[in-house]
Amino acid sequence: MKLVAFFPYRNDVRKILIPYLNQLTEEQWYATHPDHPNSIAWIVEHIARSEDEWINVISSKGKCQLPRTLDHSQQILQAYIDIRNQTDLKLNSMVYDEYAPDIQLPRFSDGWEPPSAPTLRWIFHHVFEHESYHVGQIGVIARLNGFTGPLF
Predict the structure, then answer these.
(1) Nearest Cα to 11, choosing from 64, 77, 95, 81?
(2) Long-range contacts of range 147-152, CB-CB < 8 Å, 24 or more positions apart?
(3) What is the DSSP code (8-state) at residue 4?
(4) Per-residue pLDDT for 152 more than 90?
């Protein structure tokens, strides 16, 4: 069984979020509010860079694929799209193996440890959950700054 079969709805959030992000102004991308420390730009870049790290470095033992610097909103958005395209290619090429060994994780500076065994399936699940968590913050940031958030 292909690993992708476990994640049929992984891109549903993006079907709503990408058109939403495309209509934001540069000012909206970078707006911050005293009640939330980050901008939408920061959140989207964080989602993309985290996916790059978890999929390409931690699970595949390779290197990050995204450019070191992303200077404006359209570069961030393209990185967000590109990294998922790469992830989808990997996911589509992998076969699920319930007996595969756990993946060795780095030690995290804040002491975080995974709540379950870090299998390859767990890592993909974690990446997709992480994205959903932060996409919720995008709606909060938008509303705090006086503009409409994505319609989820």
Answers:
(1) 81
(2) 147/28, 147/31, 149/20, 150/16, 150/17, 150/20, 151/16, 151/20, 152/13, 152/16
(3) G
(4) no
